[in-house]
């Protein structure tokens, strides 16, 4: 039977393009906890992973781009929204590794995409940027395959990265993050019952769920969706974790009924700020001096706050909020959206 140490040792043999400054801090949010009347809240600062201004995608891309380099690819095609965090970090890590990064970035027809925030950084990093309209939102049609075919005709060898970096190699990054947090829990003499994380494409959540059932960190992972409904995510995560178990040689996979996903923080659509997200942005900034973005981390924090206020998380419990980064997206929003009283 594989132990946690065996699993970590096996994952450490995978090709890896190391770019992260870690371990990332685990900080107690004393003021936020006091404001909410408990529980103890710790922030896992994966917004401080450094590469490309940091974020959760660094852990995933270390393994995904590591595989690309090991298998001889010279180009990586990345898809996402106009303000994609994955695109920004892939462009930064690719620049350092000598990989050509092709970004296919889209949004629904009529969605504005000014060159600011993450998109500005993509251009600064020298990525090849292709802007397209997608309907529905994440349907890129044949654009990615057509681009890959054109690059092949030019003599390039291109890897197509799945949306969000949601594949077994990306999930390995968050199984390793689970082991990192377990060490930090022991150092801080804490035993968290809960971990909350934002869920977009689902890869980070899937990696954490695999970490939970294979490494036994003692907490249960709750994913707060920012774009998709729970039924869709349960099917997607279940299928992708089964694939990851086979590829990564893991002994266990989470059962669908053991997964906890909530979808009450999405709002009008992906990327649309909600009142709860605005409150979360203001609370964390003004109580802890930490920024969260309106797209992912603020909605996750809003979900956590709601669970505390409703009594579904006990006042005497301990919870970890995994900060996935994304703060450059703050600069893509009209100040009137985030600061309506001041901007007015």
Automatic annotation (TrEMBL):
Modification N6-(pyridoxal phosphate)lysine, positions: 57
Molecular function GO terms recorded: D-cysteine desulfhydrase activity; L-cysteate sulfo-lyase activity
Pfam families according to UniProt: PALP
Active-site residues annotated for this sequence: 84 (nucleophile)
Domain Tryptophan synthase beta chain-like PALP per the UniProt entry, residue ranges: 20-325
Keywords: Lyase, Pyridoxal phosphate
EC numbers: 4.4.1.15, 4.4.1.25
Cofactor(s) listed in the protein's UniProt record: pyridoxal 5'-phosphate
InterPro entries for the chain: ACCD_DCysDesulf, TrpB-like_PALP, TrpB-like_PALP_sf
Similarity comment: Belongs to the ACC deaminase/D-cysteine desulfhydrase family.
PANTHER family per record: 1-AMINOCYCLOPROPANE-1-CARBOXYLATE DEAMINASE-RELATED (PTHR43780:SF2)
Protein known as: D-cysteine desulfhydrase/L-cysteate sulfo-lyase
Natural source organism: Ancylobacter tetraedralis
Lineage: Bacteria, Pseudomonadati, Pseudomonadota, Alphaproteobacteria, Hyphomicrobiales
């Amino acid at each position: 039977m594989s132990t946690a140490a065996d699993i970590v040792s096996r994952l450490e043999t995978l090709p890896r393009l190391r770019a992260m400054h870690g371990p990332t801090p685990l900080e107690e949010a004393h003021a936020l906890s006091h404001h909410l009347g408990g529980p103890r809240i710790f922030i896992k600062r994966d917004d401080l992973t450094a590469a490309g201004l940091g974020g959760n995608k660094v852990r995933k891309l270390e393994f995904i781009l590591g595989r690309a380099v090991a298998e001889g690819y010279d180009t990586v095609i990345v898809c996402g929204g106009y303000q994609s965090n994955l695109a920004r970090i892939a462009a930064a890590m690719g620049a350092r590794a000598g990989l050509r990064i092709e970004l296919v970035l889209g949004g629904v027809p009529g969605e504005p995409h000014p060159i600011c925030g993450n998109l500005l950084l993509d251009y600064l990093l020298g990525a090849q940027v292709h802007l397209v309209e997608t309907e529905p939102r994440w349907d890129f049609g044949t654009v990615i395959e057509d681009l890959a075919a054109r690059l092949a005709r030019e003599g390039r060898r291109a890897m197509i990265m799945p949306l969000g970096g949601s594949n077994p190699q990306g999930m390995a990054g968050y199984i390793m993050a689970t082991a990192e947090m377990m060490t930090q829990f022991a150092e801080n003499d804490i035993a968290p019952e809960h971990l909350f994380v934002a869920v977009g494409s689902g890869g980070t959540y899937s990696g954490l769920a695999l970490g939970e059932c294979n490494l036994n960190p003692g907490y249960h992972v709750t994913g707060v969706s920012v774009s998709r409904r729970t039924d869709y995510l349960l099917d997607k995560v279940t299928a992708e974790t089964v694939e990851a178990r086979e590829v990564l040689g893991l002994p266990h996979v989470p059962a669908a009924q053991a997964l906890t996903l909530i979808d009450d923080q999405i709002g009008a659509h992906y990327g649309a700020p909600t009142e709860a997200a605005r409150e979360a942005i203001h609370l964390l900034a003004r109580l802890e001096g930490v920024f969260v973005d309106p797209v992912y981390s603020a909605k996750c924090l809003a979900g956590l706050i709601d669970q505390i206020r409703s009594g579904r998380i006990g006042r005497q419990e301990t919870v970890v909020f995994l900060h996935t980064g994304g703060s450059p997206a703050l600069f893509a929003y009209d100040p009137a959206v985030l600061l309506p009283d001041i901007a007015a």
